[in-house]
Design a protein that fits this description.
Layout (H helix, E strand, L loop, with lengths): L21 H38 L4 H35 L17 H9 L2 H32 L14 H11 L7 H14 L4 H14 L21 H5 L3 H8 L10 H14 L4 H13 L5 H17 L12 H9 L1 H13 L8 H19 L5 H8 L2 H10 L10 H14 L10 H16 L5 H53 L6 H22 L4 H15 L7 H24 L4 H18 L5 H9 L2 H5 L18 H9 L7 H8 L5 E4 L7 E8 L6 E4 L5 E5 L1 H9 L3 E3 L5 H14 L17
Antiparallel strand pairs: 1-2, 1-5, 2-3, 3-4
Helix pairs in contact: 1-2, 1-6, 1-7, 1-9, 2-5, 3-4, 3-30, 4-5, 4-6, 4-7, 4-10, 12-14, 12-17, 13-15, 15-16, 15-17, 15-30, 18-20, 19-20, 20-21, 20-22, 21-22, 21-23, 22-23, 23-24, 24-25, 28-29
Length: 776
């Protein structure tokens, strides 16, 4: 009986060794030496091919930007390669050394037929990277099962009977892949470059592991560890044909072609294989179980063909269109009922096939069932996706049958980002994300989405070209609206920038005046002129001529002279100095007041009051002048005819506005999650605001002020929705009144969620994943 049929007979109990013994240390050192020598050579070979592969792709690049992308990747890999190799080899060596102390590590959880390590990788990481690694692991696990099983058994003996399996073996494909992934985190290159490196790691390292396992087994057999252990057939199926050495021997020219690593590379076609394995593991039958189910179906009738599936779907599609009259898109529809329709499609499909052929099949072929479940989970995700408004969720959910037909006709829809059906759904979702009643008062967007959904429901049979045509139509609609919204958004941003510049100039003028006044107590007349009329003159001068202009510097000198003119003139010298200053003060004041559009009569009135004040300062004022000066209080000056467009900057000696704002900002904890969320926002991000007593509003961050830091938001038409200071936005996040909408495409979000859900082996089966019973 081979080891594959003896799951409980892990080791020969009579041959267990004490993990703390010197003998164990020698054996583990031997294994570690073999592994380090082989892996160091293979990883080095893989990185030697990276340059060639990236250079080939750079030569074939369609434009300079893409070419520079690959050249930058080459430089980054050369720079980081020593650290990545060192980190990878150290991690493997450390894990092998840890086997001498098995009690320190928790026993690994029992692995399902599709390794738990792979599933964890898929669930926790970026979709493309996770799928690449998962595919490598599942492929090599099946091929290497026999030799790896023997290594596991012999390492278990060394570890005193502590069970070593594929998940805990430091040189198993899953563990090596995870160690390499962690080492590759040092690389800042983007995912396209990393995917190339993973392909080369698979080709030059994982594909050669059979040699490593055979050498380890031979070394341990020579040491007397389970010398009689027989090798059985590989678990999970036959080993793949062809030698690993021959595969690894392919040159770099073949690597890029085999891996599909050209410009614009998609998620690997391994996606469908990976999802198939995940569905199988989820249902508890990675091969045998599924075959038995299909065999049972065959006993009562043949499995439905692709044509039968398409025919039944067409009937269900026509029923939606004709039986119910116009298709309902009311967002008040029962969302739970709509969700049930999504989940029950497989049952309805089998029932319809039974009506057409006179005999209801129990099941469908495994690949068809996976496709049905996958599309079902996609539309279940759409109905739960908070990035989409409810009204749009209802409309897009009606597309389940057309998209299931498309997926059956062309299974590449799920693995190729540029597939027209996929791009159409992504574009519809992107447009839907920005929709709200307020921003679509003319219903143009709502009607366009509805029109596309209606055309797919009414017209799509088996002509996949309809997706390309509808995508072109939607893109033309987007382009027209984008031009309109960009013009409106530009005007809003320019207006906001103008207000920011004005506010900044006001604050600067206020600071300049306050700093020069200091702690002095000025007469109300003088203070009023500076705080109102002259502050506005400073603002306009800053905006028109700038802070380095002679005009602005002259305006500042006037402030100093005007304040100096209030000092007591008690002797001949001081009175002479004041008399010399007055003509310049009057001349500058006339020019400044004219700059802010004072009426001539108001200028003369103010100058008359100042003349009276200075005569009093010089001791030359009659009683009438003294009364006029007393009447010229701050309120009188403040009420002078300043144009409405030029608001007063400050009317009292107080702290500038920006200082006050900084004090308020300090109340927001700088290390709060909400503050980091605000700091991470970038122009182009969409948010949803749910303020009290207002309908939900969706808005795009259009501009962040470089002066005040305020965030300007516009709707899909480019019209201003709101602008917030950072502290205000952080408060909205904290109160749950604002949330950021996802920026990545709907399909990508859905695939990530689906793979993560399938990876959670303890949960319920996927949407409509269980086969219907014969009694239904």
């Amino acid at each position: 009986m081979n080891e594959a049929n003896e799951p409980t007979r892990v080791v020969n109990l009579n041959q267990r060794l004490d993990p703390s013994s010197e003998r164990v240390g020698e054996l583990l050192n031997a294994v570690r030496g073999i592994a380090n020598k082989r892996l160091q050579q293979w990883v080095g070979n893989a990185f030697e091919q990276v340059d060639d592969a990236l250079f080939d792709l750079a030569e074939k690049a369609e434009n300079n930007a893409a070419q520079m992308h690959y050249f930058d990747g080459m430089r980054e890999v050369r720079k980081r390669r020593p650290g990545i190799e060192r980190s990878f080899l150290s991690a493997v060596a450390r894990k092998l050394s840890d086997l001498a102390h098995p009690g320190k590590a928790a026993a690994p959880a029992p692995a399902p037929s599709f390794g738990a390590a792979e599933l964890t990788l898929v669930a926790e990481s970026d979709l493309e990277e996770s799928l690449a690694i998962t595919s490598m692991i599942s492929k090599n696990d099946a091929r290497l099962a026999r030799d790896l099983f023997a290594v596991n058994q012999r390492l278990s003996v060394i570890c005193g009977g502590y069970k070593i399996d594929d998940a805990s073996n430091p040189v198993a494909p899953a563990t090596l892949s995870q160690a390499f992934r962690e080492a590759l985190q040092e690389l800042s290159a983007d995912m396209r470059v990393k995917l190339i490196i993973y392909k080369l790691f698979d080709r030059y390292v994982l594909s050669l592991l059979e040699e490593l396992y055979q050498e380890i087994n031979a070394e341990l057999v020579r040491a007397g560890v389970l010398p009689q252990l027989r090798h059985g057939v590989p678990r999970g199926g036959q080993a793949r044909g062809g030698s690993a050495a021959a595969t690894a021997g392919a040159g770099s020219d073949g690597v890029a072609a085999a891996a599909g690593m050209d410009e614009g590379a998609e998620i690997s076609d391994d996606l469908l294989h990976t999802l198939h394995a995940l569905f199988s593991a989820r249902r508890g039958g990675a091969g045998g179980g599924r075959a038995m189910r299909e065999g049972g179906a065959a006993a009562t009738g043949s499995l439905p063909s692709v044509n039968e599936l398409l025919g039944a779907l067409s009937v269900l599609q026509s029923q939606i269109v004709s039986n119910n009259g116009p298709v309902s898109y009311d967002d008040s529809d029962d969302a739970a009922a709509l969700s049930r329709e999504v989940l029950q499609l497989k049952t309805q499909l089998l029932t319809q096939i039974g009506a057409l052929r006179g005999e209801r099949p129990s099941h469908v072929a495994s690949m068809d069932e996976d496709t049905i479940d996958l599309v079902g989970m996609l539309f279940e995700f759409i109905l739960e996706d908070r990035n989409l408004p409810a009204a749009m969720q209802v409309m897009l959910a009606r597309l389940q049958i057309p998209y299931l037909k498309a997926a059956i006709l062309d299974r590449k829809m799920f693995s190729h980002r540029q597939h027209p059906a996929r791009r159409l759904l992504d574009s519809l979702a992107e447009q839907a994300k920005s929709w709200s009643e307020e921003s679509d008062r003319d219903h143009r967007l709502h009607e366009k989405v509805k029109s596309i959904v209606d055309q797919l429901l009414h017209d799509f049979d088996d002509d996949m070209g309809i997706f390309e045509r509808l995508l072109t139509d939607l893109q033309q609609f987007q382009d027209v609206n984008k031009r309109r919204s960009e013009l409106a958004e530009q005007r809003v941003a320019e207006s906001a920038r103008g207000r920011e510049k004005l506010e900044q100039a006001r604050r600067r003028a206020a600071r300049e005046i306050l700093e020069r006044i200091g702690t002095q107590k000025l007469p109300p007349l003088i203070h009023g002129v500076l705080a109102r009329a002259w502050a506005n003159h400073l603002v306009l001068t800053l905006l028109r001529q700038g802070e380095d202009s002679p005009e602005f510097k002259a305006a500042l000198r006037f402030i100093d002279e005007f304040i100096a003119s209030t000092r007591p003139a008690n002797d001949t010298t001081s009175r002479q100095t004041l008399r010399q200053m007055l003509p310049g003060i009057e001349r500058a004041l006339r020019q400044g007041l004219a700059n802010v559009a004072f009426q001539e009569q108001d200028v003369e009135r103010l100058l008359s009051q100042l003349h009276a004040y200075y005569r009093q300062q010089l001791g030359e004022a009659p009683a009438a002048d003294a009364a006029e000066v007393a009447a010229a209080n701050e309120e009188d000056v403040a009420m002078l005819a300043i144009p409405d467009s030029i608001q007063p900057v400050l009317d009292r000696q107080a702290a500038p506005a920006d200082i006050l704002e900084e004090e308020e900002l300090a109340e927001v904890p700088p290390d709060s999650p909400e503050w980091y969320q605000v700091q991470a926002l970038q122009p182009g991000n969409w948010l949803e605001f749910t303020l009290d007593d207002e309908p939900p509003a969706r808005a795009k961050l259009s501009w962040i002020s470089p002066m005040s830091g305020r965030y300007l938001f516009v709707n899909r038409r480019g019209l201003k929705v709101a602008d917030y200071a950072p502290r205000e936005l952080a408060s909205l996040f904290a109160d749950g009144k604002a949330r950021v909408l996802a920026a990545n495409a709907l399909f990508d979000r859905a695939m990530t969620a689906i793979v993560g859900k399938l990876s959670q082996t303890g949960d319920e089966a996927p949407a409509d994943g269980a086969a219907p019973t014969d009694t239904e």
